[in-house]
């Protein structure tokens, strides 16, 4: 039996996410946007809640197509509020729409969201060497900076904790503990 990070429960969905996605560097804007949306909806909730609803989010938000989401009319917003398959939080749904608009503004300014976000870590994943749950932080200096920058640009639900979880999810930081089979030594 393979050793996994402390946060992985017995859920097969959690195991698959941990083994196949978490901490794997993501450079395409479409997937980065998907994780940005999922992480903002996760704020205050458990990640397994989001994973269990991920396919519902995918359907409700047009496969996380930020170009479509940025143009959602009020009627689409209202229908999302009625969708029991997702997290029906008015502010989070509204933020998905506005964050899509600001996401595209960053693309215009930097050429891609990927170039923008990965520049915070010099385009290289940070490989941490944590031994236990107690060592893994909820935020970092870099997530603080990213959070402030995104908020200044108009993004919502992008606090430092959300941004650190985003960084972990998209592989900007690799926080697999050293006893985990996914841990990679430099």
Automatic annotation (TrEMBL):
InterPro entries per the UniProt record, alphabetical: Adenine_glyco (IPR005019), DNA-3mA_glycosylase (IPR052891), DNA_glycosylase (IPR011257), Tag (IPR004597)
UniProt superkingdom: Bacteria
GO biological process: base-excision repair
Keywords: DNA damage, DNA repair, Hydrolase, Metal-binding, Zinc
Reaction(s) the record says it catalyses: Hydrolysis of alkylated DNA, releasing 3-methyladenine
Keyword field contains Lipid metabolism: no
Record: residues binding Zn(2+): 5, 18, 176, 180
Molecular function per GO: DNA-3-methyladenine glycosylase activity; metal ion binding
Enzyme Commission no: 3.2.2.20
Entries under Pfam families matching the protein: Adenine_glyco
Record keyword Metal-binding present: yes
Record NCBIfam families: tag
Reported function: Hydrolysis of the deoxyribose N-glycosidic bond to excise 3-methyladenine from the damaged DNA polymer formed by alkylation lesions.
Protein name: DNA-3-methyladenine glycosylase I
Organism: Polaribacter aestuariivivens
């Amino acid at each position: 039996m393979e050793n996994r990070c402390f946060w992985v429960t017995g859920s097969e969905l959690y195991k698959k996410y941990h083994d196949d996605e978490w901490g794997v560097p993501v450079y395409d804007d479409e997937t980065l946007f998907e994780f940005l949306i999922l992480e903002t909806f996760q704020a205050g909730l458990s990640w397994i809640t989001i994973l269990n609803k991920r396919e519902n989010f995918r359907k409700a938000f047009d496969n996380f197509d930020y170009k479509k989401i940025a143009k959602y009319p009020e009627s689409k917003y209202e229908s999302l509020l009625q969708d029991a398959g997702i997290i029906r939080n008015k502010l989070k749904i509204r933020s998905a729409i506005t964050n899509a608009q600001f996401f595209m503004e960053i693309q215009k300014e930097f050429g891609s969201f990927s170039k923008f976000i990965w520049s915070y870590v010099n385009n290289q994943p940070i490989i941490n060497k944590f031994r236990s749950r107690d060592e893994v932080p909820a935020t970092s200096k870099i997530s603080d900076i990213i959070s402030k920058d995104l908020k200044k640009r108009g993004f919502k639900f992008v606090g430092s904790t959300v941004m650190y979880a985003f960084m972990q999810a998209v592989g900007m930081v690799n926080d697999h503990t050293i006893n985990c089979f996914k841990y990679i030594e430099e």
